[in-house]
Amino acid sequence: MNYLCRNRTSYALNSTYQSNVVALLSSLAANASSSAVGFATGVVGRAPDKSWGLALCRGDTNTTSCASCLSLAPDIAFGLCRGVRDVSIYYDRCLLRYSDTDFLATPDDTAASVQYGVNKELNITSDPGRYVELAADLASALSGWAAHNSTRRYAAGAITTTSGEGFTTTSSDLVSTIYGVVQCTPDQSPTACQGCLGRLTSVMPALFNGTAAAQFNAVWCNLRYDLYAFYDGSPVVNLVAPPPPPPPPLDPASQNTNRGKDSENAATVIAIVLGVLVAVLASAFIMYIWSKEQAKQHAKEDEDAGSLLFDLATLRRATANFAEENKLGHGGFGAVYKGFLPDGREIAVKRLDKASTQGLKELRNELLLVAKLRHNNLAKLLGVCLKGQEKLLVYEYLPNRSLDTFLFAAETHLLLDWETRYRIIYGIARGLLYLHEDSQIKIIHRDLKASNVLLDADMNPKISDFGLARLFNGDKTTTITSQVVGTLGYMAPEYAVLGHLSVKLDVYSFGVLILEIVTGRRNTDTCFESEHEEPSSLLSYVSEQPTTSTPLETMDPSLDCQGQATESEVLKSIHLGLLCVQENPADRPTMLDILMMLHGQEASFAAPSKPAFAFGRGEMMDSEERVRLSGGPGTQRAAATVFSVNGMSASEFDPR
């Protein structure tokens, strides 16, 4: 137990302020113990006798133990801190503060204090510096987990030293595991919580006095470490400490004594060893050369996959065992969960549904493909976990999820101003140029669409979902496939109808996406007003507008198009989108051309021809087109458009 009585002001016994504190303590104990998160705040009375209070029970306490702990507070409030208006009380399983100032409105760490040897005092007698270093590493890992993965802002765990390393205490025990707990008040944001705990962690080495156990107390956050598992329940973080640094080299002067004698013996040993090595290497060299090329490619793939393997237990801890509260959404692959790794990285974990048709082979293909790609405008695949029935993909977490959740939702599309939209167009173009031209392997994405463009915290775009991507070796970037997969509306006609696959497929999809970004409408919408009576598709509607008209006629009405520069960018984007969706693939620009156009002037662009699949004036597809697009004989049905709400993949895999 620890407490802090701030003697800046006082109150008289049996005064109104004391009556308010009595009522406040009773209310806090009742509300915190009955709360799902063990937390309560309260205010009692009126100025100048108004009292503000806060109570927090440790994350592993139940209702009974929480109430029991908080019931001890009056002993300190009206005993050791009698007459003091501002008091903080810290027990092992709960804390409480009350004050005559509104500290709830301005959270700070002024109540921080340190308690050593919480239950019994033992000192670390061997390498105390490394002991507190590992305790701080544990606190840092727990802080990230508590801030981002726990509704109670609480985490418990342990760190264990590697084999052979341990710490000796004054009781002559050799210990190899440090246990810890961190907690914030659950009303704090993840950033505020991690910041509060980070400040406590940063002072641990400076305040370490050799004691094996310590508790750092603040009203808004606290942490504790000890030599035994003092908490209830299972730990959510289990770390293995890296080995200690090697000892410094010996003084060269101390090695000279026997150098002459050792040199003579060493020469004999070296001669024998070299003779044996020459014989062994000569016999093995030919076999090595023969087998090297056979195994090179397979070994490379295994290395790429092995370096990206995640342990199932790690991902269960990161997502609180795939807790519903951490679920971001559900796509074609399965559920997506937010998680937090022990090293502080935020992740998004896609978990394959048991009923999903996507299999192990497709999962491995995507892993090996995306593992080779590194670009600021591509979503980063961190790894995979394959354990029994569990198949999991681990991506970097992108807080703003997917473009479609902003672009097509009435409540969020207003957040996309024109500057942001133009930056998104430019970023997607850079990512596609990397896939087509600049990466070590040439890739056609095959499923570029709004739901497969993720947005980071600064609204920068990242292309995701490479489950349908096609890899090309060498300079060849065209082929014919009998397995047409993707999303209707974004598929180029030569691919959807004839199976002709080239980089111009992605260019077509990019053009459709540009027009969606400018207009704020889906390409499947058919409710546009047209000069003709028939409903007009997005592509037809945009192409029918006079090229000299103002962009306000086609752009999203919510955009405020002010200034010549903005109007020029809108016109340029519309013109560029129409160039990309031309029916003849040869007429469409390359991604390199597109980047140059984005930097150029719209007046210098060629005039686009009629968009492909722009059936806005009553034209009908012929019978062959209808059969192919409906999944008829000899073709495979294209994946239907799926609205992504989780920021991750919504496409179905298809075997290459």
TrEMBL record:
Q: Which domain of life is it from?
A: Eukaryota
Task: Supply the InterPro entries for this chain.
Answer: GNK2 (IPR002902), GNK2_sf (IPR038408), Kinase-like_dom_sf (IPR011009), Prot_kinase_dom (IPR000719), Protein_kinase_ATP_BS (IPR017441), Ser/Thr_kinase_AS (IPR008271)
Describe its membrane topology.
Answer: Single-pass membrane protein
Against CDD domains, the record matches this protein to: Gnk2-like, STKc_IRAK
Which BP terms in the Gene Ontology apply to this protein? Answer: response to stress
| Location within or outside the cell | Membrane
- Give the molecular function GO annotations: ATP binding; protein serine/threonine kinase activity
**Key words of the record:** ATP-binding, Glycoprotein, Kinase, Membrane, Nucleotide-binding, Receptor, Repeat, Serine/threonine-protein kinase, Signal, Transferase, Transmembrane, Transmembrane helix
Looking at the UniProt record for this protein, which Gene Ontology cellular component terms does it annotate, in alphabetical order? plasma membrane
User: What segments bear the compositional bias annotation Pro residues?
Assistant: 241-251
Binding positions for ATP per the UniProt entry: K350
Keyword check for Disulfide bond, yes or no: no
**PROSITE patterns, alphabetized:** GNK2, PROTEIN_KINASE_ATP, PROTEIN_KINASE_DOM, PROTEIN_KINASE_ST
Domain Protein kinase spans what residues?
322-605
Q: Which residues form the Gnk2-homologous domain?
A: 1-103, 112-230
Q: Where are the transmembrane segments?
A: 266-290
Main location as per UniProt = membrane
Positions of the UniProt region annotated as Disordered: 241-261
The record's PANTHER family line, in alphabetical order, gives: OS10G0327000 PROTEIN, RECEPTOR-LIKE SERINE/THREONINE-PROTEIN KINASE SD1-8
Q: What is this protein called?
A: Uncharacterized protein
Source lineage = Eukaryota, Viridiplantae, Streptophyta, Embryophyta, Tracheophyta
